[in-house]
Specification:
By secondary structure, the protein is an alpha/beta fold. It is built from 10 helices and 14 strands. Helix 2 packs parallel to helix 4 and helix 8 crosses helix 10.
Length: 327
């Protein structure tokens, strides 16, 4: 392990950010959570201090940088619902674009030159070839995807004229929960398919709405690449290590290389709960695409990372254990 680093984790009280904070702590680093707690959870901040503040507020950011003097930034703070972004695009351009620019400005003011950015497969849109590699055309189909594409571009442009070192990690579908049960997926409202399916099966939520039954896929439902949040957390540590070892800045897909349909997720939840999942098909939404799954070869090669916990069985088992805590 290299030298211990202080890492400012924007959005560190959220689902993915909190798992990354745990991974940083376990690797001997000091995570500092920067979060306005609008969607994050105070009780998810278990590893390192919490600095409350808003990503769009330069004074809040300056206070965090001056107080904690981080060596690196991991940037998760963002609005992240595709369907919501279609009906409220300004929220996404304000939080994701303006907030990220304010963060980059603060990094410049305080001399922090390393960032790992939480990006998304939504930058690709409806990709004509599968699996998707990093050279695929970027044709995002939603304001959410376009906002993340903008931030990637801003980071790249800033790096071209400064000493900024960066990695943008394009997640496919984050899923699962901490195997030790310390943190998990808890959104309000919950929009992700796996927790919604589990909640429906356990009677903790309404019947599952399956968006679309007429996609051009084998069973008519959307196909996505589900990646365990523990694997995502490990990728952030790998990316920071890679930059420390003078790796070249760039973008990396984080996925498993294969897709799983919504109906396959539903059947897997039924297997593990022993309960039929009440569900109904509804119209697909604007911005939905039939299939997205990654080629993770570049991350495997450069970052020395691979998905170890991302079988559907491992994802469902850990997510189910987390949600059973609510019973």
């Amino acid at each position: 392990m290299g030298l211990s680093k202080k890492v400012l984790v924007t959005g560190g009280a959220g689902y993915i950010g909190s798992h990354v904070c745990k991974a940083l702590d376990q690797a001997g680093h000091i995570p500092v959570t920067f979060d306005n707690l609008s969607t994050g959870h105070r009780d998810f901040v278990k590893w390192g201090p919490l600095c409350e503040g808003d990503i769009t507020n330069p004074d809040d950011l300056d206070r965090a940088f001056a107080t904690y003097e981080p060596d690196c930034v991991m940037h998760f703070a963002a609005s992240s619902y595709v369907r919501e972004s279609v009906v409220d695009p300004m929220k996404y351009y304000t939080n994701n674009c303006i907030g990220s620019l304010r963060l980059l400005e603060a990094m410049q003011r305080h001399g922090v030159t390393q960032i790992v950015f939480s990006s998304t497969c939504a930058v690709y849109g409806d990709c004509p070839t599968l699996p998707i590699d990093e050279s695929a055309p970027q044709l995002p189909a939603s304001p959410y995807g376009r906002s993340k594409q903008f931030v990637e571009t801003a980071i790249k442009d800033l790096a071209a004229v400064t000493g900024l070192k960066w990695v943008a990690l394009r997640y496919f579908n984050a899923a699962g929960a901490d195997p030790e049960g310390e943190v998990g997926e808890s959104h309000d409202p919950e929009t992700h398919i796996i927790p919604r399916t589990i909640q429906a099966a356990l009677g903790l939520g309404p019947a599952l709405e399956v968006y679309g039954s007429d996609f051009e896929t084998a069973d008519g439902t959307a196909i996505r690449d589900y990646i365990h949040v523990k694997d995502l957390a490990a990728a952030h540590i790998a990316a920071m290590t890679y930059l420390d070892q003078e790796g070249a800045s760039g973008v990396y897909n984080l996925g498993t290389g294969k897709g799983t349909s919504v109906l396959e997720i539903l059947r897997a939840v039924e297997k593990y709960t022993g309960t039929a999942v009440p569900h109904a098909f509804v119209a697909k939404s604007d911005g939905d695409v039939p299939a997205l799954f990654a080629s993770p070869v570049r991350a495997q090669t450069d970052l020395k990372w691979e998905a170890r916990y991302s079988s559907v069985d491992q994802i469902i088992e850990t997510a189910l254990a987390w949600h059973k805590k609510s019973l």
